[in-house]
Amino acid sequence: MDGFVDYGDEQATGMDQLADHGLVLMFVPLFEDWVPPIATFATKGAAPGKVLSELVISAVIQLHNHGASVLAVISDGAGNNRFMWSQLGISGKLDSTCHFIEHPLEPSQNIYFICDIPHVIKCIRNHLKKHTYGMAGDHQINFQHYVTLYETEKNKQLRVVPKLTRAHVAPDNLCKMSVCLATQLFSRSTSIGIKVYREAKVPGFEHSEGTEAFTKIINDLFDALNVKLPSQGIRPGSEKIQVIKDFLALLNTTERNTVCNGLKLFASQMTTEAMRVTLLSTLDIIEYLFGQGAHYILTAKLNQDPLERHFGLVRSFGGDESHPTVVNFT
């Protein structure tokens, strides 16, 4: 990004420095289709967590003064965002979890915190690829099973998992950013493929029951946390609510087992804590909205896809120019 550092009235330091990042705050109504950016700041590097916490609270207050009530703060799992969480008292630690704060102007209203679930799924994939093994409850996951599945099928005309490519199991730095590649790896068809070849006694799929089960669990969790269509919306008594609860219980059990037995988690500690906060917040938001009379909940509203699309539009304004200016953002 080209321009000068400017945090508005919240932070006057560093305004003579050239900026290289853009920070955007966006308001996403839960039951409307419009998604306006409400603030844009030029920054040098990623904005510090302390500054982010001040900007978030300021945005909450400004929105309240204009008749909009903030129910959740959504971000990815970057270090500065996690520091912003800690500045506001948010913690995903197993024995001291705090997933919401009190609204500064509405004491009866909580503000929940959520880590972008597509980002979380990518982090799980990257962690398992790096460490090969991981545990989820009683399920032992071996990333090599995914690699073996691809190698077994890559030259076949008829495939059980036709979408599986080398980029899914050996992503380069660019492919690691793709949500689609991560979610397709943890798909129902991948789970079925592992089962088919194990039952066919194909070498390399021995003891793959844990990988198969975990793959299906992540698939079902992502489906529950990424509902986009009203016809598929989460309603009272929905099985998707139980899917979220079951995964939260699995997450807690796995971390306790890890502490007691020295086993490897299926995700990093940072990702595990972010997931715990996200799942607790999502469950509370669903319960709150049903209590307010909502007929269904679209959980895809609780991720940062609209923000990603906004950045894509900003980049497109410059044509072949890869460095948008502050003017592009306005």
UniProtKB/TrEMBL annotation:
InterPro entries: TNP-like_GBD (IPR048366), TNP-like_RNaseH_C (IPR048367), TNP-like_RNaseH_N (IPR048365). It comes from the Eukaryota. Residues 301-329 form the Transposable element P transposase-like RNase H C-terminal domain. It holds the Pfam family TNP-like_RNaseH_N. Residues 3-89 form the Transposable element P transposase-like RNase H domain. Residues 119-229 form the Transposable element P transposase-like GTP-binding insertion domain. This is Transposable element P transposase.
